[in-house]
Amino acid sequence: MTPSALRSAFPVLVVSWILAAPSAVLGQAAAITPQLLEDFRFRLIGPAVTGGRIHDVEALPHDPSTIYLATASGGIWKSTNKGTTWMPIFDDQPVSTFGDLAIAPSDRDIIWAGTGEQQNRQSTSWGNGVYRSADGGMTWTHLGLENTRHIGRIRVHPTDPDIAYVAALGNLWKPSPDRGVFKTEDGGETWRKVLYVDTHTGVVDLVMDPSDPNTLYAAAYQRLRRTWGFNGGGPGSGIYKTSDGGRTWRELTNGIPEGDKGRIGLAIAATNPRVLNATIEHETERGVYRTEDGGESWEKTNRLNQRPMYYSHIYIDPTNEQRLYKLATSFYKSEDGGKTFETMPTRPTYDVGVHSDFHTMWINPNNPEHFYLAGDAGLHETWDMGMTFIRINNIPIGQFYAIGADMREPYYVYGGMQDNHSWMGPSATRHWIGIINDDWRQIGFGDGMYWQPDPTNHKYVYGNAQNGNYTRLDAETGDLLNIRPYPPRDERSYRWDWVSPSLISQHDPKVVYLGGNRLFISRDRGVSWERTEDLTRQIDRDTVRLMGVLGSDITLSRNDGTSSFGEIVTIAESPLDANILWVGTDDGNVQVSQDGGRSWTDMSRNVRGVPDGTYVSRVAASVQAPGTAYVTFDAHRDGDFAPYVFRTSDFGRTWTPLTRGLPSGSVNVIVEHRENPNLLFLGTEHALFVSVDAGTHWVKVPNLPPTLYDDLLIHPRDNDLIVGTHGRSIWILDDLGPLVEWSRGVAAADVHLFSISAATIMQYWKDTSYRGQAAYAGENPPDGAIVTYYLREDNDGAQVTISNARGEMVRRLEVPGARGMHRVVWDLRHEPPPVGSSQFGQQRPAQEVLPVLPHPVGPRGPFVSPGTYTVTLEADGMRASQSVIVKGDPLMPLTEADWQAREEFLVSILQTQHRATEAIERGTSLRRQLVSRRDSLEGAGAEVPTPLAAAVDSAQAVARRLQRLRGQLSGLANQLNGSGVRQGSLYPPTETQMRRKGEMERALGEAIAALGKIRR
Hints:
The chain has 1016 residues and is mostly beta strands. The chain contains six helices and 70 strands. Helix 4 packs parallel to helix 6 (991-1012).
C-alpha cells in the first residue's frame, strides 16, 4: 500500500454497480466557477525521464548558464543555472506552442516569442502571434499577428531592440493572407507586411547579415496540410533577399534549382556574412547549397536532406564559416563548408545513446566546443563538439497521446508519447522525494499511442505505437507479444491511423477492440480477431486536391506524417450494454452498433452545426441510458478552430450542441463521471474545462498550464482525474468526490463539508540521498486525508476538528474562512509537540535553499490508530460533520492492539512534553525574576544574599535539567514519529522504549519538584 490508498474509499466500478447508481437529472446541477475550483490543485507526476519536442534553444552569449527553451506545446522554460533547475515562464498566457525565440542583442532582458509550431506535423499545434518581454521572460505582452498561426523565425536589430522581423508561415491547414515577413519599428505596436508571396506561401526561415542589419535573407515555403494528407512544396517556395530593411525584395535564383521547391533552411556565417548555406527540398536536386557572394550565385555541395518537411535545419559555427551542422533525423557535421558531412556519434544503435530527430541548436560563440542540441527528445549539452552529450532530463514536457491506469495500489499510469516511446509509472510512491524518473519504465517503442491495462490483471497491458503497431505487454516480465491483425493474403492491407485507438471491454476484460479502417474485436486477449466491415467513407485521397494538385501528383513531402486516410480514431463501448458500440473516424463518420458490431449505422449526417466530414476526436458512451453518448469533432485540420461538442440520447438520431462557455480551440477528449453523469471534463487544444450540468455550461479549470489536453481518465476506484497532456506530461487531481456531490442544495447551504475518502497511515521513505537540485521528481498525493468544504459567505474564522470514536478531540486545524470551496489536509496525526523558544531557533539562511522540500520537516505529532473519525467544520457558529476511515499501512503486520499501544505510548509522551514545556516556562520566568533581583543589588553595590545566589544557581541547574529532559523526550518520540527527513516506525514501543519513557517521566517529576523548592 502506498499513498494512493489515502483516497481509496470508492469501490471498483462494475457494471452491476453502474446499473444500480441513481441517475442525476441532466442540466439540474448548481453553477460552478473557476473561483470555486481555485483550491483544487493538480499534481504533476511527470515523467521528465524523456523530453518533448523543442523548437528553439537560446542562451546568453556572455552568460551561457542562462538558457531559454521554446517547446512545441509545453510553453517557454528558463534556467539561470545551466539547466540545473527550470522555470516555466509562459504559463499565464493562452497558448503554449512556439516556433522561435529571439533575444535582443542590445538588451538581454528583451525577448521576442513567436507562437505556433513550424514543423508541419500532423500533431502540430497553432499559436496566436507574437509576444515580447522586457524583463527576461517574467512578464509578456501580446503584440498581435494572431492569424499568422505559425512563426518560423524572429530576427531583432543588433542595436535597436524595437526593430524586429517576423517570418510567418501562416495557417498550416488553410490558405490565408497572414503570412510572409512582417516588420516592426516600434517594439511591436504596429506591423508592416514587407514580403508576401501568396495565400499558400509563408516564410519559414530568416537570417540577418551581422554586419548590415538592413540585409536579410528569407526562405519562402509553400505548403498545406489537411486531414487526409500533405503537400509540401510548390512554385511559391524560394529564397528572397532585401538590402534596404525590407522595403524591397528580390528572389535569388542563380544556382537555385528551378521548378517547385519545398522547405528551405538558411544559415549565415558570422565570420563572413557573404557566406550562406541553404538546405533545399526539391524533387531531383535536393540538398545543401552554398553561396560566397551574398546570394548572387549558389552551388550545390551535397545531396544530404533528410525528411525536409520536418527538419531543414542548418547551422554555421559562429567562429568558423567552414564548419556546418545539419540537423535532421540524424546529426551531421561538415568541416569543409558542406561538401562532405559526417554523422555524429550520437547513438550506436536504435534507442541507445542520444535520441534522434534534431530541430535546433545554440553554439557558444566564445567556445564552439560547447553547444546545446535539442529536438523531439528534449535538450542535450556537449562540451566536445558533439562527441558526447549530457542529457538534461529534468523538464516535464512529455507529449502524451493517450493514457491508461490499472487497479494496483497505488495505481500505475500508462501512456504513449510522441517520438519518445511508451511508459508506465506509479501515481504515488513511498519515496520521500516523490515520483522519480527511475520509477518510470519504458513499455513500448516508437511513437507511443494508446495503452490500457487489464483491470483484473495488470500483467496484461494492451498498447500500440504509430500506424497500428499493436502489442500485448506483460508488465511484470516485459514480454512483448505482437497482436496486430493482418488481412488474408488476397485482400488489401488494413489502414491504421497514426494514433490508432484500442479499448478493453469494461464488461469482459478478455475482449479487446482495435481501430483501423475496420473495427477489430478479440475475445481471447488478442490471440485471434474478428473484424467488421469498413466503417469509413473510403475516400481515395489520390483524387483529392491540395493547393490545386491531385493527391496522386504531389511530388514533395507527399502526405508526410499521414501514411493513410480513412480510419477509426476513437472507440466507445456502452457501460450499460456490451452490445452497444460507437466509433468515430478521421473522415467524419460516427457509427453505432447495437448488436456487438455485426451491423452499423452511420449517424454523422444527423449532427447539425459541424462541417460534414470533420475529424471525430472522441466518442464517449454515457452511463445515463443505452442510447446516450457524447461526440466531439476537431476541425482544426480544416483551418477551423471552433469547438464542437454534441450529445445524443437516441442512438444518434438527433444531437444537441454543448459549447456554451467554450472559447475558440478544438476539442480533443470528453469524459463523463459515472457516479454523477452531470460531471463532465473536456480537453481542448489549450485548456481543460469542466461542466457540472452535463455540458450545458463549461468553465475553464484553473491551476493548469496552457497546453494540449489530449486524454482524460477518471480512475474508477480512487476517483482521481488523470490528465494526459501533449506537452506537459501527466497531471492528477486527487479525489473528485466534492465535484461529484456538488449540487444546488450544497450551493445554498451556509456551511457544507463534503464526504472524505478513506486515508491510510503511511510513512514516506527517504530512500534517496543528496540527488542535487537537478533531479526531477513528480509530486506524491497529499500526506493524509483531504478535507473539502464549502462556505457560502465570508466568515471571520473557521476551524476543523477531528475526534475519535470516544468523542475525544485529537486535532484542531485553523482553516480559511473565505467564501467558496477549500481543501485542507489532515495528516492523520495528533497535534505536534510544543516548540519552546530554545528549539528550532536557528537563523534562516538569507536565500532560499533548493530543492524545495516535498514535506515539512518540523516537529510532528503521533499518528492516530486506525478507525473511524469524525471531522467537524465550524464557521460562525455553524457546524457540519463527516466521518473518515483511517486505515493502517497494509504492508505492516500490526494488530489493532499494536496500533493502540503505539498511539497511547506517543500520546503519553506528548502530554509529558507539554508538562516539560510548562515547567520550562515557569522555570524561565522564575530565573528571570531571581536574576533581575540579583542584578539590581549588584548594580546598587549591595551584597547579594547567599540564599538569592543559591536560588539563581538552582534555577539555572533545574532549567538545564528540564531542557535536557525535553530533548530526551523529543528524541524518544522521534524514534517512532520520525524527525526531519527520517522516517520513524509504526511498530509499538519496545520494552526499552517503555522503560526509558518511565525513567524520563520520573526524572521530570523530580525536576518539577526541585523547581518548586527554589526560594523566591
